[in-house]
């Protein structure tokens, strides 16, 4: 990003763009706006020899942000166990588990509709941060009190099946639902993977993660299938999606208040002399 910004700045200068010349040393400069005791000399202290990015906890290593934590964990293990090439038999690398939504969205970053694909890149980066935050919360709960562990397990029990349903009805094999649009969407490259492929990918990524956390998934049929190279899982009861959903009383009250305000505002507009 720094290199990109530098190239952009040079390109703008070549095109004739100019900027504020007193942004850092004028009467009302940025340093004064950000601090009452600014020290501008620190901006050039150790220039060329001291790089703040190596002192930052946000990006400790000169790699992409998604693998900062993994690299830190590796270096910690190497230090604690005195690991060397001589005493390491093999290294097993697993990709971090994404949430169901991220698994569903990542292929869309390569879909045929350019504006949507570019937008999804940013969406997936944001959602990946939320997913990592959620994993850290579960990790903390599962190493807390018995009540906290019960809360984490209850959350998994409630959301496991809805998460699998979120990928949509079956669209391949003998259980495929008729009337879907997967085939046409795949032909147009709007959709890059079927509902069943994405669902399987999510299960394969989540089962090991649940084991690492010490959580059990509410599906007794989950087991590794050597022949398929994937985890088998139970049949999803999609009728649950069609059940009526009773609105909580507070939500009904909110809808009533919102509709009342809406009609009050609309009547006010109609009486306004500016609209007559």
What would you note in describing this structure?
The protein is mainly alpha-helical and 276 residues long. 50% of the residues lie in helices and 2% in strands. The protein has helices at residues 2-14, 30-34, 68-81, 100-105, 114-141, 146-165, 182-187, 195-213, 239-242, 249-270, and strands at 223-225, 230-232. It has a two-stranded antiparallel ribbon. The chain starts with a helix and ends in a 6-residue tail after the last helix.
Proportion in helices: 40-55%
Strand order of the largest sheet: 1-2
The largest pleated sheet is described as: 2 strands, antiparallel
Mean pLDDT: 76
Shape: extended
Radius of gyration: 27 Å
SS field, number of helical segments: 10
Structural class: mainly alpha
Oligomeric organization of the protein chains: single chain
Low-confidence parts: 94-98, 247-254
Q: Termini distance?
A: 53 Å
Beta-strand residue fraction:
under 5%
Series of H and E elements: HHHHHHHHEEHH
Count of distinct strands: 2
